[in-house]
Design goal:
The strands form 4 sheets. The protein has a 5-stranded parallel beta sheet with strand order 3-2-1-4-15, with helices on both faces. Residues about 1-5 and about 10-35 have low confidence and may be disordered. It has helices at about 1-10, 10-15, 25-35, 40-45, 55, 65-75, 75-85, 90-95, 110, 120-135, 155-170, 185-190, 195-210, 225-230, 260-275, 280, 300-310, 330-340, 405-410, 440-445, 450-475, and strands at about 150-155, 170-175, 215, 235-240, 245, 260, 290-295, 315-320, 345, 350-355, 360-370, 380-390, 395, 400, 435-440. Helix content is about 40%, strand content about 15%. It contains 21 helices and 15 strands. The radius of gyration is 23 Å and the shape is globular.
């Protein structure tokens, strides 16, 4: 039973720092005691099969959640997996990293009644992990060749989802990514204790086996500009995500020891792959033995504080300018961080950074919530007389991400963007200002959730298919 529970809650969650193969019998017993949870079948049986499945309505993919919960409760795991897989290309990934407390589980009828939501994410992870172990995960169902090719720029969740659907439609698919591994933030941005990297790599390997061609280390604008890629392929999809870090304007911000969140997380993930990471090895991006201050309140900030704990930081504090109720990150992640020893300093913002060459501390101001801003959220403002200082050897800026200047980077100044720098697309077709060039994921909607990127990848594949089919019909008619 303990082994089943471990697979249900996840090794990384139950026992940080150990692989399942390293666990001893007493470890399993400890996990069973600490995570006194029912089996996936028992948990699924709690679903009320309500008349209005709010869980499915609030899932961006509109997964058939009550139906696969019922199948799981009946022990029909293979059918449950097949149903879950029918609407999502990465159910075990969503099961691990989706903020279920804000989506499906947060809208569970049982949760409304005060009895605690069905643990939908854990069940989704369990049934798909079981499918991989049992050999139920089938190869990509490649459709009959159509003689048309697609180029996808970006190997993150939106690009990967679109690649799978486009192969099923029968198109030749090439994916271009500037990193040395596919997966985008799934690979380098999300810590391994939340998303084990072999889980991502096996999805990518499945796509490769299905005929998707990956061009890694390929930077559009350097190896080829956008116009050159347009000539290579029938159509293009831009799914780069948003990677430009938001900055802080404060004295001392350029001191050594003040780093970007993505640099910090990427270094940690690369070490997990066994890569040589000089900036980690020399201590620059390693929190071990340091007083760490993370600035920000989103999911990336939570990833940073929890990574710092696992690296052996002396102390970890999270500075956020609003209160707990108004933070954008998952409340579940926040609770996990608190359990692991992270101290949250609410209603606080950095004023300046101490240290001549290397940061030694953060000078901060107390904040209070004033009148609502344009978004309806109460805007933070400085609370006079509330200045304080925090010791810091490592400061991690986790203030979110913005789009890079793609028209300039890609050598395509005619590529339309919004005032926020995201790509401008037709709301009906998802096509950009360039004929036959589509866009999806965060580069269109701004920094968002992985599940929305997967949804966008699914939707844009259908639009691209319709456009290429119409183009082929026109060519035949001529």
């Amino acid at each position: 039973m303990a082994e089943t529970m471990l697979k249900f809650v996840g090794t990384a969650q139950a026992y940080p720092g150990k692989r399942e193969a390293e666990l001893r019998a007493e470890d399993f017993r400890e996990i069973a005691d600490r995570y006194a949870v029912p089996s996936a079948e028992e948990q699924s049986s709690r679903c009320s099969q309500c008349g209005v499945p709010y869980c499915s309505v609030h899932c961006p993919l509109h997964n058939h959640i009550p139906d696969w919960l019922r199948l799981t409760a009946e022990g029909r795991l293979r059918e449950a997996y097949q149903l879950s897989n029918s609407t999502s290309t990465m159910p075990e990934i969503c099961g691990r990293i989706c903020p279920q407390d804000r989506l499906c589980e947060g809208n569970c009828v049982i949760e409304f009644s005060g009895h605690g939501a069905v643990t939908i994410g854990s069940v989704e992870k369990f049934i798909t992990d079981t499918a991989w172990e049992e050999g139920w995960v089938e190869p990509v169902a490649v459709g009959p060749a159509r003689g048309q090719s697609v180029g996808i720029i970006g190997a993150g969740p939106a690009g990967l989802a679109a690649a799978e659907y486009l192969r099923e439609y029968g198109y030749e698919v090439h994916v271009y990514d500037r990193h040395d591994r596919a997966g985008g933030l799934l690979t380098y941005g999300i810590p391994g204790f939340k998303l084990e990297k072999h889980v991502v790599m096996r999805r990518i390997e499945r796509l490769e086996q299905g005929g998707v061609v990956f061009h890694l280390g390929f930077e559009v604008g350097r190896e080829a500009n956008l116009d050159e890629l347009r000539k290579r392929h029938t159509t293009l999809l831009i799914a780069t995500g948003v990677y430009k870090a938001r900055g802080i304007q404060a004295p001392g911000v350029g001191a050594k020891g003040i780093v970007e969140a993505l640099d910090y997380l990427t270094a940690s993930n690369r070490k997990g792959f066994g890569d040589a990471v000089p900036a980690f090895d020399d201590g620059s991006l390693d929190a071990n033995g340091k007083h760490v201050v993370v600035i920000g309140g989103g999911d990336t900030a939570m990833d940073c504080v929890r990574t710092a704990v696992r690296q052996g930081a002396t102390s970890v504090k999270c500075l956020y300018r609003r209160d707990r109720a108004n933070m954008p990150g998952s409340q579940r992640e926040t609770a996990n961080a608190e359990e692991e020893g992270v101290e949250f300093v609410w209603l606080s913002a950095p004023e300046a950074f101490d240290g001549v060459d290397t940061v030694t501390g953060v000078r901060a101001s107390r904040m209070r919530l004033g009148a609502p801003d344009a978004s309806g959220r109460r805007a933070p403002e400085v609370d006079p007389g509330g200045a304080f200082q925090l010791k810091a050897d490592l400061v991690i800026k986790a203030l979110g991400f913005e789009p890079e200047d793609l028209p300039r980077m890609f050598g395509a100044e005619e590529l339309g963007v919004t005032r926020w720098g995201t790509l401008r697309t037709d709301g009906r077709t998802m096509m950009t200002s360039l004929d036959g060039v589509f866009a999806a994921g965060d580069i269109v909607r701004g920094a968002s959730l992985v599940v929305w990127a997967i949804r966008d990848g699914r939707d844009v594949a259908a639009h691209m298919h319709a456009w290429m089919r119409a183009r082929a019909d026109t060519a035949r008619a001529a």
